[in-house]
Amino acid sequence: MPNDPALPTDAQDGLARLLEIMRRLRDPDTGCPWDIEQDFDTIAPYTIEEAHEVADAIARADWTDLRDELGDLLLQVVFHAQIADDRGLFTFDAVASAIADKMVARHPHVFGSESRDKTAAQQTRDWEAIKAAERAAKAQTGVLDGVAAGLPALMRAVKLQKRAARVGFDWPDTAQVIDKITEEAAELREAAETLPHDKVEEEFGDLLFVMANLARHMKVDPESALRAANAKFTRRFSRIEALLAEAGKRPEDSDLAEMDALWNRAKAEERGTG
């Protein structure tokens, strides 16, 4: 790897090196044309993607990959901060200082005089009270104010429902949520048979929203659960492809009945009953 003596080394300060690399990539005279033309909007999708890749590495317990993915995510923070610096909005140091100040303010039981003698549940309530005060200081007075619109839809649904639940807008038990799912599924079926596509999409969204609520009541992370389901589907379908290959076939040479039987075989093998 070529070494530029003008750059700090990782041994000296890895973060300083990364910041200098990004500054030079964005230099309007000598930087990279692609990096120079990026802005907050064009980089935001990469930021979301990298956060999901961090979660994926954790789910796979691949710690080497996690190290690399955390680096990719850190690069996103550095990139956004450099764009902001170029525009005279704020610097990376201001970003770091702001989050440091926020963490100190939200943990008076660690950095202040408040007692640490409390349960995790009490700390969660205190944390939410502090965040509510912060929102009030920003004139975010509505219960749902501040829930980022750019979150993945399932995650945002859960956060919206948690906020509403804090002021009593919630079903008291899981059974009522399941009843609502049955109701929404029936409405979706009816819409699919009689209504235009936009209404079908609306009813489908209603059903997903209630499913997210069920996840919250059951203390299940819906994003994590769906990632696991995706991984399971990928694993089992790959097994179907392998079994077909043993017979000299590909999926497009097969049919649903055969692949469904192979799916059941793959499932049985995973469960140790094959």
From TrEMBL:
UniProt-listed Enzyme Commission number(s): 3.6.1.8
GO biological process, one term: dUTP catabolic process
Reactions the enzyme catalyzes: ATP + H2O = AMP + diphosphate + H(+)
Molecular function as annotated in GO: ATP diphosphatase activity
CDD domains reported for this sequence: NTP-PPase_MazG_Cterm (cd11529), NTP-PPase_MazG_Nterm (cd11528)
SUPFAM superfamilies in alphabetical order: all-alpha NTP pyrophosphatases (SSF101386)
Residue span(s) of domain NTP pyrophosphohydrolase MazG-like: 38-111, 177-236
Record-linked InterPro entries: MazG-like_dom, NTP-PPase_MazG-like_C, NTP-PPase_MazG-like_N, NTP_PyrPHydrolase_MazG
NCBIfam families: mazG (TIGR00444), PRK09562.1 (NF007113)
Family membership noted in the UniProt record: Belongs to the nucleoside triphosphate pyrophosphohydrolase family.
Name the UniProt record assigns to this protein: Nucleoside triphosphate pyrophosphohydrolase
Organism: Roseovarius litoreus
